[in-house]
Amino acid sequence: MVTRDDLIDAMLRRDVESMDLKDLVRLAYDVGEERYDSLGMQELRDHASDNYPDLLEALDNVSNANQ
């Protein structure tokens, strides 16, 4: 008998295989948005500092220029 995990895996593979690039990008964006939305501001800043320091600096510069 097929297991639940095997069935989920097979269906996910089929879902992904049927998507075009636009669908995959949207899915990645949605998953990322859910992940980041669950973080507090300090956690977001820490993540940005560790992974995208140039992005954090650029956004801080824009924010400071608009004040």
SSE blueprint:
Layout: H1 4-17, H2 21-37, H3 41-51, H4 53-65
Helix pairs in contact: 3-4
Keywords:
single chain, 4 helices, 0% strand, mainly alpha, 67 residues, 82% helix
Beta percentage is: under 5%
The averaged pLDDT comes out at 93
Distance between the termini: 64 Å
**Low-pLDDT segments:** none
Order of helices and strands: HHHH
Determine the number of helices (DSSP H or I, runs of at least 4 residues). 4
Radius of gyration: 18 Å
Main sheet overview:
none
What is the approximate shape? elongated
Structural class given helices, strands, pairing?
mainly alpha
Number of strands: 0
Helix content: over 70%
Would you write up a description of this structure?
This protein has 67 residues and is mostly helical. The relative contact order is 0.06. The radius of gyration is 18 Å and the shape is elongated. Helix 3 (41-51) crosses helix 4. The chain has a domain at 20-65. The model has no long low-confidence stretch (mean pLDDT 93). It is built from four helices and no strands.
Care to give the gist of this entry?
This protein is mainly alpha-helical. The protein has 4 helices and no strands.
